[in-house]
Amino acid sequence: MTFQRRLVVICTGCLMISMGLCWTARAFEEQSAQDQPPVGEDGSSPSYQSRTAELREQQLVSGGGTSESERAVAAAINWLARHQNPDGSWGCQKCERQCKDPSCKAHLTKAGADYPMAATAFGLLPFFAAGQTHETKGPYQQMIRNGLLWMVKNQDPKTGRLGGGNMYEHGLATIALCEAYGLSKDVKFKNAAQAAVQFTEDAQNDVSGGWHYTANPPTVGDTSVFGWQFMSLRSAQLAGLQVDRQTINKAKKFLTSVSKGKGGGLFAYMPEGGPTPAMSSVGLLCSQHSGMKRSDPAMTEGMNYVMANLDGAKSNSYFLYYASQVMHNLSGPEWDTWNRTTRKHLVSTQIKEDCAAGSWAPTGHTAGPVMSTSIHALTLEVYYRYLPIYKPVYSNEQKIELPKKE
Ligand SMILES: [Zn+2]
Prior knowledge:
Blueprint: E1 3-4, E2 7-11, H1 12-18, H2 53-63, H3 67-82, H4 116-129, H5 141-153, H6 167-184, H7 190-203, H8 223-238, H9 245-257, E3 259-260, E4 266-267, H10 277-289, H11 297-308, H12 317-330, H13 332-349, H14 368-380, H15 382-385, E5 397-401, E6 404-405
Antiparallel strand pairs: 1-6, 2-5, 3-4
Helix pairs in contact: 3-4, 3-14, 4-5, 4-6, 4-14, 6-7, 6-8, 7-8, 8-9, 8-10, 10-11, 10-12, 12-13, 12-14
């Protein structure tokens, strides 16, 4: 799809009407959760429908995406495709084996230990976020299929565990498998995804409700590892897979144990610690997916804290990834400010030259170029990866760069 950029200052009401939607523009009205079921309710959800071509474009426009951000996403998935390993996997630092370009420097990045299962999940997720699967005809179809088959082949057939690393790997890979199944409904991946979910449930600390680096941790768990597991269970629910209600109830208990601040809208890494912007964004996103209302004082407290740390998002990809989802769900003028700042930052910092074109250099919070490229692309796909949890809130007039179909 080709977009021609057009910069306009537009009344939001007009934009909505032009999109055939009938939302009334309004600012700061209290909103309750939309018709998405919160985590804990069984059954499938229509939420992956935002990734269909038609809704994707609508969500892009209404959420504040631009032709530049979409070009950046396209360049990113092209870079990922060019740096997949021949066996279908990706690596945190083993990018050189596939890339034939003599100018390629991807392999020169030293990222410590390699986590191929996590890297493969990162390699695939930006494709899924844009609605592309192994069944989508096009240049990436076989590549996506090879990635998925590699994941399933390397799953522990007895336990369902994905990857031999820590629970970060398993959580990320579970999100990828659940999305692959949820988008395609290909039964080949249903059992693998369900088995991965089962392992996640088994790995939870039964008392605290948390997850940590190791399965069934001797500690209560930590918010960072927790976030990936929790979102993988959410992905499973959206895909129509079974998630044990008890697991979710215990997880909510963990979230409460790490919540801080007057209203409980700030979050710490562990119960005894203090809040940080990154952990707060994880906690807020999980709270949103757990059914917390937009009008909840905790959500207001958390949003204000996230906004106060906007500048820090430019140097913390992890915070940026989570906080962008939180702010996108909340919409309104704060999201408008957040989005314009971070979107421009991401587009401008993407590498434009040589074989690295489309990638982002690793930051202090990303292990290697695959993870860095993936997490930044996913942040630019926030407009349509999920439907917003809450009904959109619009300020009366917003400056929107409106992509126009040629
Ligand atoms: Zn290369």
